[in-house]
Amino acid sequence: MGVLLNSLEVVTPLFFIMIIGWVLRRIGVLDEKSLGGITKLVYSLLLPCNLFMLVYSGDYSQPIDVRFIVFAIFGMVTCFTLSIMIVPHFEKDRTKCGVIAHAISRGNTALYGIPLAVGIFGAGHLGNLGVLLAIMVFIGNIGAVISLEVFRDKKLNFVSILMRVIKSPIIIFSACGAVIVALGISLPSFILTPISYMSNSVTALSFIALGGSFSFAGLHKYKTQLTAITLFKLVVSPLIWVTIGAFVLGFREIYLVALLCIFATPVPVSLFPMTKSIGGDSELSNDAVVVTTALSVVSLFGFVYLFNYLGYFA
C-alpha cells in the first residue's frame, strides 16, 4: 500500500498542474501563442538547466558498477535503434514516426525517477543514483534528438542530423555539466543559484503547457498510436530490460531502481517541447505524455510490488 501511495504522491501533483494548464487555456489566460512561448522556453532553457543541475550535483564519490552502465546504455541504444528501424513500417506519417520512436524508447528519468527512488529508499539512502541517472539522461537525450531528427526530412542527411544533435540545448548543457564536473570546477553561487531556480521551474511550466495543449479528441484520433506507445513503454520495455537486469544480471537495490527509472517510467515531458520545436506531431506527443503518466501508477506499482515482495530492495 505504501508503494501505491507513493506512486500517487508522485503522479497526482503532476495531474493537478496539467488540470491547471487545461483550465487556464479554457478561460483564455493561455492561448496557442503563449503556450508555444512556454514550450520554447522549456526546451531551449529550463530543461537544459535541469539536466545541467542533475549532472553537476551528482554524488561522484561512490564506485559505480560498470556492468550496469554497459547494460543500461546497451538497452537504451537497442531501443532507439530498433524503434527507428521498425516504426516506419507501421506508421507512414513521418511527423508521427519520430514521436512514437522517441516515446517507446525513453522514460521520464529526470523528473519521475528521483521521487520514485525516494519513496522506496528514503532521501538519505540514494547513494550514487543521481550520477547513474545523469549518465542515462545524457545518453537518452542524444538518442531522443536523433530519433526525432531522423524523421524530420524526407531524405536522410547524417551530417545535418549530427549538427542538429550537437547544437541541441539539452546536449550542450548536459555536456557542459559533465566537463565542469570532470575538471573539478566549483561554480560560484551567483552562477549556480539562477541555474537552480530555472531548473526547479521546469516541471511546473512543462505540465502547464501539456495541460493547456491537451485535447480529449486526441484520445480517439490517436488511439492506435497511443495504445502501442503505452504497451511498449510501460509493459514490454520494462519486462525485457528490468527483468533481465534483475533475474539474469542480478542487479539489486539502487541499481534495480535505476533500471525502473530508465525503462519503466512514462514518456518524458520533454517530448512535447522537443517535438514542437522541430515541427513533429506535437498533439500526439502531448497525449502520449498524459496517458502514460496516468497509467504508470498501475504499471510501476506492479513492478515495485514484485521486487519488494522478492526482497530485491532490501
Describe this structure in words.
With 314 residues, the protein is mostly helical. It has 15 helices and no strands. The model has no long low-confidence stretch (mean pLDDT 83).
Short description:
With 314 residues, the chain is an all-alpha fold. Helices cover 79% and strands 0% of the residues.
> Can you count the beta strands?
0
Q: List SSEs in N-to-C order.
A: HHHHHHHHHHHHHHH
How big a fraction of the residues is strand?
A: under 5%
Helix content bin: over 70%
**Count of individual helical segments:** 15
Q: Which overall shape is indicated by the principal axes computed on the Cα atoms?
A: globular
Structural class computed from helices and strand pairing: mainly alpha
CA-to-CA gap between the ends? 17 Å
| Largest sheet properties | none
Mean pLDDT: 83
Please name the defining characteristics of this protein.
314 residues, mainly alpha, 15 helices
Structural topology:
Elements: H1 2-26, H2 32-56, H3 66-90, H4 94-105, H5 109-121, H6 129-150, H7 158-166, H8 169-182, H9 189-200, H10 202-213, H11 217-221, H12 223-248, H13 253-263, H14 271-278, H15 282-309
Helix pairs in contact: 1-5, 1-10, 1-15, 2-8, 2-9, 2-10, 2-14, 3-4, 3-6, 4-6, 4-12, 4-15, 5-6, 5-13, 6-7, 6-13, 6-14, 12-13, 12-15, 14-15
